Amino acid sequence: MTARTTKRGDSTRDVLRFTFRHWAKEPRWLGWVIVTMMASTLADVFMPLYAGRLVDAITQFGADREAARGAVINAFLVMTGLGLALVVLRHIAFYGIVELSLRVMVKVGQDAFARVQRFSSDWHANSFAGSTVRKVTRGMWALDLLHDTVLLALLPSVVVLIGSMILLGLNWPVMGVVIAVGTVVYIGMTVFLNIVYVAPSARLANAWDTKMGGTLADALSCNAVVKAFGAEAREDARLAGVLAKWRSRTARVWMRATNSGTIQLVALLGIRAAIIGTALWLWWNGRATAGDVAYVLTTYFVIHGYLRDMGMHINNMRRSVNDMEELVAFYDEPFGVEDRAGAGAMRIGRGEIVFDRVRFHYAGHETALYQDLSLTIRAGERVGLVGPSGSGKTTLVKLIQRLYDVTGGRVLIDGQDIAGVRQASLRSQIAIVQQEPVLFHRTLAENIAYGRPGAKREEIERAAKLANAHEFIMDLPRGYETLVGERGVKLSGGERQRVAIARAFLADAPILILDEATSALDSESEVLIQEAMERLMEGRTSIVIAHRLSTVRALDRIIVFQKGRIVEEGNHAELYRQGGLYRRLCDHQGMEFTEQPVGRTAVTTA
Ligand code: ADP
Predict the structure, then answer these.
(1) H helices within 285-357, ranges in order?
(2) Which of 282, 449, 521, 599 is the most exposed place for a label (fewest CB within 10 A)?
(3) What pLDDT score does 520 carry?
(4) For the chain, how far is it from start to end, CA to CA, in angstroms?
C-alpha cells in the first residue's frame, strides 16, 4: 500500500476543508438548504413560548372560560401555524439537500476516479483495485451522511439552542446561563469523547474494512488461479483471518461509541435537573407563573430532543469524516508523473526516438538501472530488444511511454522532449501490444475500437482481418458482440493477443511497441500472430521486446541489454557471428544460424 502523507491530526480538517470546498461550488443549493432549515427550526424555538401562554391563559382566568377563550384560541392557532410552517419548510429544505448531496457526490466520485486513473502505474501496481473501489464509494456515501448531519441536524440544533437560550435569557437571565453552560459542557464533552476516544479506533477499523474489500477482490479476480490449485479453502481461511481482525477492530469502535453514548445520556440527566430545578426555584420565589414553568419545561423537552440527538449527530459526523479520510487522502497523493503547467500536445511525425544520455533509477533500488544510456532509433526502423530477464528491456519501453520520468538526460521523439508534453497525447500516439493483453469486460468490437473511439464497423473488421482475428471472432456465437469476460478471460492467450494487435492496427500510431508473449503458444497461433505483427510493423517505428529470439531475426537491428547497458548492437547475422552474449542466448535457445535472408514469417525453430 502506498504511504499516507496526511498526518493523523490533520485529516479531520482536510476532510472538512474538502467538503466546504465542494459546497462553495454550489452556493445556490447550499443557501436554499440553510435558509429553509433555519426558518423551519425557528418555528420549534417559538413553540414553547405559546405553550406557556396557553397554560397562562387557562390558569389566569380560572373558571371563567369565556374570558380566556380569545387568548387560548390565539395561542392554539399560532402553535398550529408554527407546526405547519415547520413541516412545509422542512419539506422544501429536504428537496434542496437531495439536489445538493447528489451534485456533490457525483462530482466527488467523478473527480476521485479521474485522479486515481491518472496515478502512476507504480501506484496501481501497489494498490488493490478492490480497496480503491471501496475507498471511493465509501467516501461518496460518507459525504451524503455528512451533509445530512451538518445541514439537517447540527445546524437546526445550534439554531434551537441559541434561540432558546436568548428567548429564555430575556425573561430570566439565570435560565439563559444554565442552558448556555449545560449546552457548552455537553457539546464539548461529546466532541472530546468522539475525537479522542472513538475516532482513533474507527480509523483502524476502516483500514481493516478496506483490507477486507482488497482481499475479496484479489481472490475473486484471481479466481482462475485459485481454481487451478483447488485452493478455495485456503482463500476462505485467508478471508476468515482478515474478517476476524475486522471484527475485533469494529467491535471496539461500536463498544466505545456505546460507552460514549451512555456518558452523554448521564450528562443530559444533569442538565435536565438543573433546568427544571431552576424553573421551580424561580416559581418558589414568585418570579415565574405556572405558564412560565410550562414554557421552560416545553423548551427543555425541545432542547433535550436536539441535545440527545446531538450525540448521535457528532457520532455520525465523526464516522463520515473517518469514512472520507481515505478518499480525501488521494488528493495528497502525488501523481508520480505529472504534466508540466502549459504542456502542449505531442506531434509525432516520422517517429524517431532518441535517448540522450539517460539516467534512470527505480525508487528503492540501490543503483541506477541506466547510468548514461544513449540510443537512437531511426524513424521507421524495426528494433528488437534482447537480453536476460531483468536487464532493462521493459523499462526502456516504459520510459518511451513516460510511465516514469528519467532521473537524468532526455528522451526525445522527433526532437521533442517527452517530459514537456501532455502524457495522454504522447501515449495516444504509441500503440502497444502487451505481453499479456488485458481486455475490458465489453464486447470484442468495443475492445478493438478502444484504439480509435468512434471507429466504424468496417474499420473494426478490417483491423481484425489484418490481425488474423476476424475468423475466430466470426466463429464465436455473437461474433463482434461477444463479451470477453473480465480482463478477457473467455479468450485464449493467442486470441487475446490478436485482439490487441487489431486494436493497435486501428490506433494506427506512428510508434509501435510489441511486448512478445513469454508463454508458449501453439504453433498455429504463433504463425498467425507473427504474420499479423509483421504486417503491423510496416511503416512504423517498431520496438519489439523479444523473449524468443526467433522473432527478432528479421528485424533491422537488435539491441542487446545486460544489467541496464547496451552491450551489443547489429542485425542477427552480425551479432551471431560476433560470438558474444547474443550468440550465447541463441545457442541457449537452440536456434540455428542462417545466412539466408529471413522470410517475413519467421517460425520458431526452438
Ligand atoms: P526486463 O524487461 O529486461 O526483464 P525490466 O526493465 O523489467 O527488465 O527490469 C529491469 C530492472 O528493474 C529489474 O531489476 C527489475 O527488478 C527492476 N524493476 C522493474 N520494474 C520495477 C519497478 N516498477 N520498481 C522497481 N524496480 C523495477
Answers:
(1) 290-329
(2) 599
(3) 61
(4) 41
Please state, in angstroms and rounded to a whole number, the distance separating the CA atoms of residues 193 and 260: 6
Ligand 1 binding pocket includes 563 (Cβ within 6 Å): no
Could you tell me the distance, in angstroms and rounded to a whole number, from the CA of residue 395 to the centre of ligand 1?
A: 6
Q: DSSP characters for 274-293?
A: HHHHHHHHHHHTTS--HHHH
The DSSP letter of residue 232 is: H
User: Cα 522 to the chain's mean position, in Å?
Assistant: 40
Quick check: CB of 149 below 6 Å from ligand 1?
Answer: no
d(CA 470, CA 484): 15
Find where cell 551479432 sits: 575
- Categorize the per-residue pLDDT at 519 as very low, low, confident or very high, splitting at 50, 70 and 90: low
Rounded to the nearest angstrom, the distance between the alpha carbon of 156 and the centre of ligand 1 is 58
The answer to whether 603 and 523 are in contact (CB under 8 A) is yes
**Ligand 1 lined by 120 (C-beta under 6 Å):** no
* Closest among 273, 322, 324, 269 to 108, alpha carbons compared: 324
Ligand 1 atom nearest residue 385's Cα: 3
Residues 357 and 373: beta-carbon distance below 8 Å: yes
pLDDT tens-digit series, residues 463-486:
999 988 898 899 888 888 888 876
Quote the pLDDT of residue 2. Answer: 39
Q: Which residues sit opposite 432 in a β-bridge?
A: 513
Mutating to test ligand 1, I would choose from 124, 360, 369 the residue with most ligand atoms within 8 A of its C-beta, which is 369
pLDDT of 495 reads 87
* DSSP-assigned states of every residue in 547-595: SSGGGGGGSSEEEEEETTEEEEEE-HHHHHHHTSHHHHHHHHTTPPP--
The answer, yes or no, to whether any atom of ligand 1 lies below 6 A from the CB of 387, is yes
pTM above the 0.85 mark?
A: no
What distance in Å separates the CA atoms of residue 135 and residue 131, rounded to the nearest whole number? 6
Query: Average of pLDDT values for 570-588?
Result: 85
Nearest in space to 574 (alpha carbons), one of 589, 561, 559, 591: 559
pLDDT band at 548 (very low <50, low <70, confident <90, very high): confident
145 Cβ neighbours under 8 A, 6+ residues apart = 316, 319, 320, 323
> Which residues are registered as beta bridge partners of 360?
370
Q: What pLDDT does residue 33 have?
A: 95
Beta-ladder partners of 356: 410
Q: Residue 600: what pLDDT?
A: 42
Atom of ligand 1 nearest to the CA of 388: 3
For the Cβ of 122 lying below 6 angstroms from any atom of ligand 1, the answer is yes
Residue 241: count of CB within 10 angstroms of its CB? 11
Ligand 1 center to 365 CA (angstroms)? 10
| 194 within ligand 1 shell (Cβ under 6 A) | no
The arithmetic mean of pLDDT across residues 434-459, rounded, is 87
C-alpha distances in Å from residue 197, one per residue of 251, 253, 321, 419: 14, 9, 15, 48
SS3 label, residue 301:
helix
126 lines ligand 1 (CB under 6 A): no
Strand partners, 353: 377, 413
- Least confident stretch, 37-46, 193-202, 308-317, 561-570: 308-317
Helix axes 129-147, 290-329, angle to 10 degrees: 160
Counting atoms of ligand 1 from 1, which one is nearest the CA of 122? 23
